[in-house]
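Hi R.,

As promised on Friday, here is the backbone we talked about, encoded as structure tokens. Could you run it through your design pipeline when you get a chance and send me back a sequence?
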């Protein structure tokens, strides 16, 4: 079981206190350098929460496509239309490796690739030149989703195991999932 670096994900309540509620980041590269390089900790806190919302598999924004996530985070959380994620790309790139567990990274890769595939499918016009390739891709979608489902189930099992630690009794639904 991997250690979860994000210990508190209440980004709304602690939007200016990321470093206080998740202090481990101050000691992990490349976030340590980011923390020490800018004196405005409220600003860096907002950036770190924005990265969490953009990248983390547990983010409430993960259901959106990448471009939609970026826009929603800029508009409703950062509230700065000039904010650009590209400026923090090195922190974004490091996030899965530094923060996510092995199964979360695998799930994120699957999620991102399915998103990329869907975006491609939507961009191709269905016509006499493309219909065979598109039909084949659509037909091949079922095994892709089944494989994603297996990874997602492993992720759910990891989450249940993590939450059930500490001696508390598992919930009814947790017990049902563990019987399988």
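Update: got your reply. Pasting your designed sequence below so it's all in one thread:
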């Amino acid at each position: 079981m991997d250690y979860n670096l994000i210990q508190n994900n209440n980004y709304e309540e602690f939007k200016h206190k990321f470093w206080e509620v998740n202090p481990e980041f101050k000691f992990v590269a490349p976030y340590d350098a980011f923390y020490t390089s800018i004196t405005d900790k409220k600003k860096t806190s907002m950036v770190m929460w924005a990265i969490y919302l953009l990248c983390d598999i547990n983010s409430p924004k993960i259901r959106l496509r990448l471009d939609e996530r970026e826009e929603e985070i800029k508009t409703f959380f950062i509230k700065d239309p000039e904010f650009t994620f590209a400026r923090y790309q090195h922190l974004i790139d490091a996030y899965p490796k530094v923060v996510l567990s092995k199964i979360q990274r695998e799930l994120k890769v699957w999620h991102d690739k399915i998103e990329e595939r869907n975006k491609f499918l939507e961009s191709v016009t269905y016509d006499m030149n493309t219909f065979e390739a598109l039909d084949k891709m659509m037909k091949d979608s079922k095994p892709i989703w089944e494989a994603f489902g297996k990874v997602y189930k492993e992720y759910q099992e990891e989450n249940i195991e993590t939450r059930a630690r500490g001696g508390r009794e598992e919930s009814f639904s947790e017990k049902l999932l563990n019987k399988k």
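One thing I noticed while checking it: Residues 101-180 form one domain.

Thanks again,
M.
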